[in-house]
Design brief:
single chain, five-stranded antiparallel β-sheet, rod-shaped, three-stranded antiparallel β-sheet
């Protein structure tokens, strides 16, 4: 009778094949989420969520908005421009690694190693080289300026 009880024990404890497969599937799902997270982080650092990209786009939007209502425009040097608008006389120039307002301390773009403004035919071509070596360029239209 003791031998019969050992072979037909209904209260068996331990891993079954089904338990092992279920845990393996859960582990694979977590591994996929882990890999997807690191892929997302690498895209975030290289894509539109990059802070330098956002700063550049905000600077471009603000400058185009201000140049739309410009009455007079002057290019003083390759790194210094002045213009007058409804907000008064404004200017931009490079100073100590920043592109900032001519008067005051309002920085518009950080981490700038070189800026070049070229103006011809009511078009302002702005080229900015950042400290990390990236270079961005954009052409702005100055519609109401007098050359």
């Amino acid at each position: 009778m003791g031998q019969y009880r050992l072979l037909n024990n209904k209260d068996e404890r331990g891993f079954t094949l089904l338990d092992a497969l279920l845990q393996l599937m859960i582990l694979i799902c977590f591994a996929h989420f882990f890999l997807l997270f690191f892929i997302w982080c690498s895209h975030k650092n290289n894509g539109m969520f990059n802070t330098e990209e956002l700063q550049w786009e905000l600077f471009s939007f603000q400058l185009q908005k201000e140049l739309t209502y410009t009455k007079d425009f002057y290019r003083r040097t390759s790194y210094h421009i002045q213009y007058s608008s409804t907000r008064g006389n404004l200017g931009l120039k490079q100073a100590s690694g920043e592109l900032r307002r001519e008067e005051g301390y309002q920085p518009l773009l950080f981490g700038v190693s070189m800026v070049n403004f070229e103006y011809a035919n009511n078009r302002l071509n702005t080229t900015v080289k950042f400290m990390n070596g990236k270079e961005r360029s954009r052409e702005f239209i100055v519609p109401n300026s007098k050359e």
